[in-house]
Amino acid sequence: MIKTPFFSYSMLAQSSLKNNMPNDDIKIREVNWSTDKESLSKIRSDVFIDEQNVPEKLEWDEFDNTSLHFLVTKNNKTIACARLKSDGQIGRMAVLKKYRNQGIGKKLLQFVLQKADSKKLKNIYLHAQISAIPFYENQGFTTSDDIFFEADIPHKIMQKTS
């Protein structure tokens, strides 16, 4: 299989319909913080700062400049994002509320995992909000026993196992 930095899911219309996903043009691409900061920031601000009340000073950090970033568009509208740090940590994964539970987060995570594989990153992990643990478990992550808090939100560390 040839791995590319850009996928279009519009050609998967039949399988998308089976997953209750409308036949829309979904694209996932790797982007650069310096050129796509506005789009990435808008999604993260909407989801983390506005919805989840994460303080702005905690949302933006020194890793934004050095991480790989990913954007999802649907019919040319930016709707989701994630980042991958050089140590294998997946983070800042966010899907706008209107687009949740449509398989977009799963497709985004699969794309990020493919990129981690192509970079030969061995230790893939994330800090999952407690409410998101079942989602990540379904994607092959296992959880630690310890709960910790980031921005007053309970999390657990999860490792990719397969």
How would you characterize the overall build of this protein?
The protein is of the alpha+beta class and 162 residues long. The protein has one domain: Gcn5-related N-acetyltransferase (GNAT) (Aminopeptidase, 3-Layer(aba) Sandwich). Helices cover 30% and strands 33% of the residues. It has helices spanning 13-18, 33-51, 56-59, 104-118, 133-137; strands at 6-8, 26-31, 68-74, 77-84, 89-95, 125-129, 141-150, 153-160. It has an eight-stranded mixed sheet with strand order 1-2-3-4-5-6-8-7, sandwiched between helices. A hairpin with a 2-residue loop joins strand 7 and strand 8 (153-160). It is globular, with a radius of gyration of 15 Å. Residues 1-21 have low confidence and may be disordered.
List the SSEs and their pairings:
Elements: E1 6-8, H1 13-18, E2 26-31, H2 33-51, H3 56-59, E3 68-74, E4 77-84, E5 89-95, H4 104-118, E6 125-129, H5 133-137, E7 141-150, E8 153-160
Parallel strand pairs: 5-6
Antiparallel strand pairs: 1-2, 2-3, 3-4, 4-5, 6-8, 7-8
Derived structural class: alpha+beta
The total domain count is 1
Weakly predicted, low-confidence segments: 1-21
Order of helices and strands: EHEHHEEEHEHEE
Percent range of helical residues:
25-40%
* Number of alpha- plus pi-helical segments: 5
The CATH class designation is Alpha Beta
Average pLDDT metric: 88
- CATH topological fold name: Aminopeptidase
> Which architecture would the CATH scheme give at its second level?
3-Layer(aba) Sandwich
* Count of DSSP strands: 8
